[in-house]
Write a structure and sequence with these properties.
Chains A, B: This is aspartate--tRNA ligase. Chains A, B: Pfam families: tRNA-synt_2 (PF00152). The structure is a homodimer. Chain A is α+β, with helices and mostly antiparallel strands and about 575 residues long. Chain A contains 18 helices and 17 strands. Chain A has helices spanning about 1-15, 50-75, 95-100, 105-110, 175-180, 230, 235-245, 255-260, 260-265, 270-290, 330-335, 380-400, 400-410, 425-435, 450-460, 515-520, 530-535, 550-560, and strands at about 90, 130-145, 150-155, 160-165, 185-195, 210-220, 295, 300-305, 315, 320-325, 340-350, 365-370, 420-425, 465-470, 495-500, 500-510, 545-550. In chain A, strand 9 and strand 10 form a beta hairpin. Chain A is elongated and about 90 Å long. At the A-B interface, helix 1, helix 3, strand 2, helix 9 and helix 10 of A face helix 1, helix 3, strand 2, helix 9 and helix 10 of B.
């Protein structure tokens, strides 16, 4: 019954993304998606024909494996009445899942009642001979015979091999059949004894084996999934190595991943990416709170258009024209006018730009900071410097497992950075480029290519992939940027780069209303359209400055992931607004 | 020149909010706003006529005071050339503010170069005889004579009295004139020596006095402000006490406050409110991170309509119909489907409802939680219980100064709560109401009045203002709520109350797709319209539940503030989308 709906789901997505994905060959009970629209970093695009051929081969292989499993598990998966051990396995009923602690409890409730769950990631050799209860997903079943089967259980990216055999206590051949016949990705509760095998276990993260005594299926997945988690978790290197020995393994393309994101984010690398993202936010906050910053929440619904320049999402607000904030710029500056001294915000930022690149999204998570300046805009750069070094140190310390998990699928070199961040002026940067034979406009902006090149030169000369470039030409910054003291062609502003890509933009703001109006006019802006902004500064305001960072870019560049869609949980770009 | 713009600003706001505010009498150099549209908690609405009369009287008083100050300060405020101490005061020039550390530094740069700023809130008697540098605002000046003046300096809600007198070292009568003539709310850097007066100082938070040696104006405010911070900071009790002795003090109404929010948020109570709001977010995160939750960021731009039911803000997304998320419900559940186990999000939530009440906003900050359930939905209530007790404890411990500042303007009793939160079933609640003579539908929802009454009964019987009411009737909860095990008329759901108002709504979700479709149908929902939601659960999903809280409501109810606009930095309601 679910299958019709499932097909509808597929059709729904295929109609939404028909321009970017190709559904490819979907034969009977399995699938294969062809890598038509791969990201920049993915190589080796196969022709459709060759891919179809490979897909058919793969399909045959998978069907053979399934047939073997089914033969062992026989036709019916239900618990047989005449099994004296029937209470040790089976499907958990919905009433039980509503409240397992009722008096008329079922077998599952009784079995788990006096036990605590051990996380799969915590299953170590220290637990040898101990009985444990785990909850996880059926990653894969490997039936061996009527009387024996393996099942790999996965929880939050960690995997453990479980063995069910009729030689075990309380295990019937019916139970083996039940376990071997479980659908991939189903949720199970398993009770068993931890054993330490003589040889290392290949293909699981945990180096112990669970000898099962009881296993209950808490929730069944569909027998066929649009993508398999182990296909989605495979590295390019594995695929290429297999190809050398004649095996064509499925490669799941970026759009297919995003269409079935609830499956894709189950891979160890994705589990790592979003746990690291959480850590970036946590360290960002902890550091700023410790420096006396206050976290604020500014409105995303703005009257009129928030800044001009890039495109905004417009909407009707109870009959008034409104738009979604492109940045919290105005409101974080108002918070400074309102005596909060130092503020930060973590929240969504909306850009209706038509940029379909590896580094742009229509909605992303902005990390925004604004602060009083006592003497000099270098105070803002000092915060950037210490904040990011703290963040990088923290990620390397706290997220080792996550970084390893990402590296297994997407190998990358650790970011090179210094305890005290390198600062170059824009003029120095231009000179470095010139010395290397790259001519750029000394009062223009750097294009992506020049930024990359400069990143490379800085790495060679200073051995760092993280640096600040400041004193940008005034002409390439927004009108509210404070010009330099000694040369009005330059400004009290900076960009910050990771691995040759811009990640932060910051500056001292013009806080004197008369001068702000003058600067707006000089930039060709009608002062009347921004009068509320200018007027905010008429009631007394300290000199101030700030900066903004995209959370997704931090994670993307720290891990050298090459596509920002990989670091957004449910990305939005000009072609995608679902799921 | 700035004044025209300022008038334009006033006119801009008056045209925007003409329906809710009355600009009242704005005579020459001062203003008075009449309290026409006060919030529920504000009493004593005066007639326009009486108010105008009072305003005129007030205006006279203020002009008299100003005249006295100006007489003392004389006409010109500029630094006079023939003053041997002219380097000890004056306006800081814009070039200096761009970079005070240049070689050709001005007097201000030289004066502050070797000093660190002391926060006003840190000025205690321990610093007696020490020379300090402070940055703050001119809260008020009190000229005494040509040779002496007081100036109260305010920073982040803390105030200190400063004395400038020609008897002091390096102080000329010109400097006294300069200080006495400073506009309110201007930003100054002041250097002076801490002294401890014999008698307590009235009207300032700090019990020391600074004897000024140098004072520089970093940024000038307009001579006349739309609201004065001390008017905005006054409690009802002060206004009423003054009235008894024949003084009519200005009362700034809620809409005027919001129109000039950058001035309003400078009051000590508002400084407290938003610092407490920051703490609520911080404790919420710290607690959940320590319990293994992962912070996520879900999209606010959603294809179609996010949930149905209440009104949504619609927009065009690159040619596709889209809307703003009314809650992260779907995506936080998808994160559970995606193996994150326990997740939370802090982010904006959008509701296009036409509710113009003390507790509804069109945009607010949602604190959302979703988690796997192992055995029973009480696990979710356990998290709510410990989370909120930790939060309340934390606020009481960490925010004493802030709570006191709020209490001075808006007196309130500390929240009564228990270390282990009271849990009542809906049936028990209905019975308590019945016993008190209030008849309610035992299978319907409680209206606001019944909730208030029950809060009162619970307080009397259990001595707590914070409790959980669970097992709500199934019929009054969304279709995705899990019915109770033993009685399908009820559900595995709960609401949480603070001071008789609902603050949290939570439940176990239906995670079985077939049953979810059945429940949707039973609730009259076309299953086809929610197929993507239902299909998310077809790839295996653990039992799970969660809850949502509004950050602004937590602060409002903890501090009994009576109007949610007081706890939103820049609130959005059906009549307000600015500033």
């Amino acid at each position: 019954m679910g299958f019709n709906c499932f097909i509808k789901f597929l059709l729904f997505f295929s109609s939404l993304f028909v321009s970017t994905i190709e559904l490819g060959v979907a034969i009977s009970s399995s699938y294969i998606f062809i890598d038509i629209m791969s990201s920049e970093s993915e190589e080796q695009q196969l022709s459709k024909k060759a891919a179809k051929k490979e897909a058919a081969k793969q399909e045959k292989l998978r069907r053979r494996q399934e047939a073997a499993a089914l033969a062992s598990a026989a036709s019916s998966l239900s618990v047989e009445e005449d099994d004296p051990y029937s209470s040790n396995y089976g499907d958990v009923s919905l009433p039980e899942l509503k409240s397992c602690s009722q008096t008329d409890a079922g077998q599952w409730s009784l079995a788990i009642s006096s036990m605590e769950w051990t996380p799969v990631g915590a299953l170590t050799q220290d637990l040898k001979e101990k009985e444990v209860l785990i909850r996880g997903r059926v990653h894969i079943t490997r039936p061996v015979s009527k009387n024996m089967s393996f099942v790999v259980v996965r929880e939050k990216g960690f995997t453990v091999q479980c063995l069910v055999t009729t030689q075990g206590e309380g295990v019937s051949s019916q139970m083996v059949k039940f376990v071997a016949g479980l659908n991939r990705e189903s949720i199970i509760d398993a009770i068993g004894v931890v054993s330490v095998p003589g040889n290392p276990i290949k293909g699981t993260t945990q180096q112990v084996e669970i000898h099962l005594r009881k296993l209950y299926c808490v929730n069944k997945a569909l027998p066929t999934l649009p993508i398999n988690v182990d296909d989605a978790a495979r590295s390019d290197a594995e695929i290429e190595a297999a190809l050398l020995s004649g095996d064509k393994l499925p490669r799941v393309n970026q759009d297919t991943r995003l269409n079935f994101r609830v499956l894709d984010i189950r891979t160890p690398s994705n589990q790592g990416i979003f746990r690291i993202q959480c850590q970036v936010g946590t360290i960002f906050r902890q550091f700023l709170l410790s420096e006396g910053f206050v976290e604020i929440h500014t409105p995303k619904l703005i009257a009129g258009s928030s800044e001009g320049g890039s495109a905004v999402f417009k909407l009707d607000y109870k009959g008034q024209p409104a738009c979604l904030a492109q940045s919290p710029q105005l409101h974080k500056q108002m918070a400074i006018c309102g005596d909060f001294g130092r503020v930060f915000e973590i929240g969504p930022v909306f850009r209706a730009e038509d940029s379909y690149t590896h580094r742009h999204l229509c909605e992303f998570t902005g990390l925004d900071v604004e602060m009083e300046i006592k003497k000099h805009y270098s105070e803002v750069m000092d915060i950037v410097d210490r904040l990011f070094v703290t963040m990088f140190d923290g990620m390397n310390e706290r997220c080792q497992k996550e970084l390893e998990a990402i590296g297994r699928q997407y190998p990358f070199e650790p970011l090179k950075y210094k305890p005290k961040t390198l600062r170059l002026t824009f003029e120095e940067g231009v000179q470095m480029l010139k010395d290397a034979g790259v001519e750029v406009d000394p009062l223009g902006d750097l294009n992506t290519e020049a930024e990359r090149k400069l990143g490379q030169l800085v790495l060679e000369k200073y051995d760092t992939e993280f640096y600040i470039l400041h004193r940008y030409p005034l002409a390439v910054r927004p009108f509210y940027t404070m010009p330099c003291y000694d040369n009005a062609l330059y400004s009290n502003s900076f960009d910050v780069f990771i691995r040759g890509e811009e990640i932060i933009s910051g500056a001292q703001r013009v806080h004197v209303p008369e001068f702000l109006a003058e600067r707006a006019q000089a930039c060709g802006i009608d002062v009347n359209t921004i009068s509320t902004y200018i007027d905010s500064f008429r009631y007394g305001v300290p000199p101030h400055g700030g900066f903004g960072v995209g959370l997704e870019r931090v994670v993307m560049l720290f891990c050298a992931l090459g596509n920002i869609r990989k670091t957004s949980l449910f990305p939005r770009d000009p072609q995608r607004i679902a799921p």
